[in-house]
Protein backbone atom coordinates (compact mmCIF):
# COMPACT_ATOMS: atom_id res chain seq x y z
CA UNK A 1 0.00 0.00 0.00
CA UNK A 2 1.39 3.39 -0.88
CA UNK A 3 2.36 5.71 1.98
CA UNK A 4 -0.21 8.40 1.17
CA UNK A 5 -3.13 5.97 1.38
CA UNK A 6 -1.73 4.31 4.52
CA UNK A 7 -1.24 7.68 6.24
CA UNK A 8 -4.78 8.74 5.35
CA UNK A 9 -6.10 5.56 6.98
CA UNK A 10 -4.14 5.87 10.22
CA UNK A 11 -4.64 9.63 10.60
CA UNK A 12 -8.40 9.50 9.87
CA UNK A 13 -7.90 12.03 7.08
CA UNK A 14 -11.13 11.50 5.17
CA UNK A 15 -10.48 14.77 3.25
CA UNK A 16 -7.95 12.66 1.36
CA UNK A 17 -10.83 11.20 -0.68
CA UNK A 18 -12.15 14.66 -1.61
CA UNK A 19 -8.69 15.96 -2.45
CA UNK A 20 -8.01 12.96 -4.71
CA UNK A 21 -11.49 12.64 -6.21
CA UNK A 22 -10.27 12.92 -9.79
CA UNK A 23 -7.49 10.38 -9.35
CA UNK A 24 -8.01 6.66 -9.64
CA UNK A 25 -7.39 5.30 -6.16
CA UNK A 26 -6.26 1.70 -5.89
CA UNK A 27 -8.07 0.87 -2.65
CA UNK A 28 -7.43 -2.86 -3.07
CA UNK A 29 -3.69 -2.57 -2.60
CA UNK A 30 -2.35 -4.27 0.51
CA UNK A 31 0.36 -3.51 3.03
CA UNK A 32 3.72 -5.26 2.67
CA UNK A 33 3.89 -8.57 4.47
CA UNK A 34 0.38 -8.57 5.96
CA UNK A 35 -1.56 -7.73 2.78
CA UNK A 36 -3.99 -5.59 4.78
CA UNK A 37 -6.21 -3.24 2.78
CA UNK A 38 -7.08 0.31 3.76
CA UNK A 39 -10.23 -1.14 5.38
CA UNK A 40 -8.11 -3.39 7.63
CA UNK A 41 -5.91 -0.43 8.57
CA UNK A 42 -8.94 1.74 9.35
CA UNK A 43 -10.36 -1.10 11.50
CA UNK A 44 -7.10 -1.43 13.40
CA UNK A 45 -6.92 2.28 14.19
CA UNK A 46 -10.66 2.66 14.82
CA UNK A 47 -11.19 5.21 12.05
CA UNK A 48 -14.91 4.99 11.33
CA UNK A 49 -14.98 7.94 8.90
CA UNK A 50 -12.30 6.37 6.70
CA UNK A 51 -14.17 3.08 6.80
CA UNK A 52 -17.40 4.75 5.65
CA UNK A 53 -15.67 6.46 2.75
CA UNK A 54 -13.88 3.28 1.66
CA UNK A 55 -17.05 1.18 1.82
CA UNK A 56 -18.93 3.76 -0.27
CA UNK A 57 -16.20 3.62 -2.93
CA UNK A 58 -15.30 -0.09 -2.81
CA UNK A 59 -17.93 -2.26 -1.01
CA UNK A 60 -16.17 -5.49 -2.04
CA UNK A 61 -13.37 -4.74 0.47
CA UNK A 62 -15.82 -5.75 3.21
CA UNK A 63 -15.04 -9.41 2.40
CA UNK A 64 -11.33 -9.04 1.60
CA UNK A 65 -8.94 -10.90 3.91
CA UNK A 66 -5.36 -10.22 4.95
CA UNK A 67 -2.51 -12.73 5.24
CA UNK A 68 -4.09 -14.28 8.36
CA UNK A 69 -7.48 -14.61 6.71
CA UNK A 70 -8.96 -11.79 8.79
CA UNK A 71 -11.57 -9.41 7.45
CA UNK A 72 -11.93 -5.89 8.82
CA UNK A 73 -14.76 -7.31 10.98
CA UNK A 74 -12.35 -9.78 12.63
CA UNK A 75 -9.99 -6.92 13.43
CA UNK A 76 -12.65 -4.52 14.72
CA UNK A 77 -14.17 -7.27 16.91
CA UNK A 78 -10.82 -8.36 18.35
CA UNK A 79 -9.83 -4.79 19.22
CA UNK A 80 -13.19 -3.93 20.78
CA UNK A 81 -14.13 -1.21 18.30
CA UNK A 82 -17.91 -1.32 18.83
CA UNK A 83 -18.83 1.54 16.49
CA UNK A 84 -16.74 0.07 13.73
CA UNK A 85 -18.20 -3.42 14.26
CA UNK A 86 -21.72 -1.94 14.09
CA UNK A 87 -20.87 -0.07 10.90
CA UNK A 88 -19.48 -3.17 9.21
CA UNK A 89 -22.53 -5.23 10.20
CA UNK A 90 -24.89 -2.45 9.13
CA UNK A 91 -23.14 -2.27 5.77
CA UNK A 92 -23.32 -6.07 5.42
CA UNK A 93 -27.03 -5.94 6.28
CA UNK A 94 -27.58 -3.72 3.25
CA UNK A 95 -26.23 -6.55 1.05
CA UNK A 96 -28.07 -9.70 0.00
CA UNK A 97 -28.76 -12.20 2.79
CA UNK A 98 -26.10 -14.63 1.53
CA UNK A 99 -23.47 -11.88 1.46
CA UNK A 100 -24.41 -10.75 4.97
CA UNK A 101 -24.06 -14.28 6.29
CA UNK A 102 -20.76 -14.69 4.45
CA UNK A 103 -19.24 -11.78 6.36
CA UNK A 104 -20.56 -12.80 9.79
CA UNK A 105 -19.53 -16.43 9.32
CA UNK A 106 -16.21 -15.79 7.59
CA UNK A 107 -13.45 -17.82 9.23
CA UNK A 108 -9.80 -16.83 9.27
CA UNK A 109 -6.87 -19.25 8.89
CA UNK A 110 -7.46 -20.52 12.44
CA UNK A 111 -11.14 -20.99 11.47
CA UNK A 112 -12.10 -18.33 14.02
CA UNK A 113 -15.07 -16.09 13.29
CA UNK A 114 -15.34 -12.49 14.47
CA UNK A 115 -17.29 -13.91 17.44
CA UNK A 116 -14.31 -16.04 18.48
CA UNK A 117 -12.09 -12.95 18.24
CA UNK A 118 -14.43 -10.81 20.35
CA UNK A 119 -14.61 -13.54 23.01
CA UNK A 120 -10.82 -14.01 23.13
CA UNK A 121 -10.44 -10.39 24.20
CA UNK A 122 -13.56 -10.21 26.40
CA UNK A 123 -15.50 -7.64 24.36
CA UNK A 124 -18.98 -8.33 25.74
CA UNK A 125 -20.87 -5.64 23.78
CA UNK A 126 -19.49 -6.95 20.49
CA UNK A 127 -20.26 -10.56 21.46
CA UNK A 128 -23.83 -9.53 22.21
CA UNK A 129 -24.13 -7.70 18.87
CA UNK A 130 -22.73 -10.59 16.80
CA UNK A 131 -24.95 -13.18 18.48
CA UNK A 132 -28.01 -10.96 17.98
CA UNK A 133 -27.16 -10.83 14.27
CA UNK A 134 -26.58 -14.58 13.89
CA UNK A 135 -27.27 -17.17 16.60
CA UNK A 136 -25.61 -19.79 14.39
CA UNK A 137 -22.19 -18.26 15.08
CA UNK A 138 -22.18 -20.08 18.42
CA UNK A 139 -21.98 -23.43 16.57
CA UNK A 140 -18.67 -22.69 14.81
CA UNK A 141 -15.45 -24.20 16.11
CA UNK A 142 -11.94 -23.07 15.29
CA UNK A 143 -9.03 -25.34 14.26
CA UNK A 144 -8.47 -26.20 17.92
CA UNK A 145 -12.06 -27.43 18.20
CA UNK A 146 -13.03 -24.48 20.44
CA UNK A 147 -16.63 -23.30 20.31
CA UNK A 148 -17.44 -19.75 21.41
CA UNK A 149 -18.96 -21.04 24.66
CA UNK A 150 -15.87 -23.13 25.39
CA UNK A 151 -13.63 -20.10 24.84
CA UNK A 152 -15.72 -18.00 27.23
CA UNK A 153 -15.75 -20.67 29.96
CA UNK A 154 -12.09 -21.56 29.48
CA UNK A 155 -11.04 -17.92 29.85
CA UNK A 156 -13.43 -17.40 32.79
CA UNK A 157 -15.45 -14.73 31.00
CA UNK A 158 -18.61 -15.51 32.95
CA UNK A 159 -20.73 -12.67 31.59
CA UNK A 160 -20.13 -13.81 28.01
CA UNK A 161 -20.68 -17.50 28.86
CA UNK A 162 -23.97 -16.72 30.63
CA UNK A 163 -25.12 -14.57 27.72
CA UNK A 164 -24.52 -17.40 25.26
CA UNK A 165 -26.30 -19.94 27.48
CA UNK A 166 -29.31 -17.64 28.07
CA UNK A 167 -29.60 -16.44 24.47
CA UNK A 168 -28.89 -19.50 22.35
CA UNK A 169 -30.89 -22.68 22.86
CA UNK A 170 -28.58 -24.84 20.77
CA UNK A 171 -24.93 -23.77 20.82
CA UNK A 172 -21.67 -25.66 20.42
CA UNK A 173 -19.97 -27.12 23.50
CA UNK A 174 -16.77 -28.46 21.93
CA UNK A 175 -13.29 -27.62 23.08
CA UNK A 176 -9.68 -28.40 22.30
CA UNK A 177 -8.17 -31.87 22.55
CA UNK A 178 -11.56 -33.58 22.77
CA UNK A 179 -12.65 -31.63 25.85
CA UNK A 180 -15.89 -29.74 26.15
CA UNK A 181 -17.34 -26.86 28.16
CA UNK A 182 -17.98 -29.07 31.18
CA UNK A 183 -14.33 -30.19 31.29
CA UNK A 184 -13.20 -26.57 31.23
CA UNK A 185 -15.69 -25.51 33.92
CA UNK A 186 -14.58 -28.31 36.25
CA UNK A 187 -10.89 -27.58 35.62
CA UNK A 188 -11.42 -23.87 36.35
CA UNK A 189 -13.37 -24.71 39.52
CA UNK A 190 -10.55 -26.99 40.69
CA UNK A 191 -7.95 -24.27 39.98
CA UNK A 192 -10.02 -21.74 41.96
CA UNK A 193 -10.29 -24.11 44.92
CA UNK A 194 -6.50 -24.68 44.94
CA UNK A 195 -5.82 -20.93 44.86
CA UNK A 196 -8.11 -20.25 47.85
Shape summary: elongated
Tally of strands? 0
CATH class value of the largest domain: Mainly Alpha
Which structural class do you get from the secondary structure elements? mainly alpha
Strand content: under 5%
Percent helix:
55-70%
Write out the CATH superfamily name of the largest domain: Ankyrin repeat-containing domain
Tell me about this structure:
- It is elongated and about 60 Å long.
- It folds into two domains: 1-106, Serine Threonine Protein Phosphatase 5, Tetratricopeptide repeat (Alpha Horseshoe); 134-196, no CATH class.
- Helix 5 runs antiparallel to helix 6 (82-93), helix 6 runs parallel beside helix 9 (124-133) and helix 8 (114-120) packs antiparallel against helix 9 (124-133).
- The model has no long low-confidence stretch (mean pLDDT 88).
- It has 196 residues and is mainly α.
- The chain has twelve helices and no strands.
At a glance:
Keywords: ANK repeat. By secondary structure, the protein is mostly helical. It has helices at residues 3-11, 15-19, 38-45, 48-57, 72-79, 82-93, 97-105, 114-120, 124-133, 148-154, 158-167, 181-195.
Amino acid sequence: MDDILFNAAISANDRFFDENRDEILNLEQGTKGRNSTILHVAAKFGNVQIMKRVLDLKPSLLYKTNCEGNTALHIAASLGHSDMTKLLIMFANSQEVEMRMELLRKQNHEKSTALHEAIKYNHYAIVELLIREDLGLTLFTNIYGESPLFLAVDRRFCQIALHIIKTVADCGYGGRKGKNVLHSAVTNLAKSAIQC
